[in-house]
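Researcher: Please translate sequence to structure tokens.
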Amino acid sequence: MNNLRFIADVHISPLTVAALILKEYDILRCTDLLPNTAADVDIL
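Model: Translation complete:
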């Protein structure tokens, strides 16, 4: 796999993220680190 990392916003299903993790994508949901009310500027 390459060094590309992904972050999924709250509108991306946890099931989608889980499926991508199983396919060895480096991805996490922003709600794993921040509250679901976080502003886009805080996520970036």
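Researcher: Any highlights?
Model: The two ends are 23 Å apart (CA to CA).
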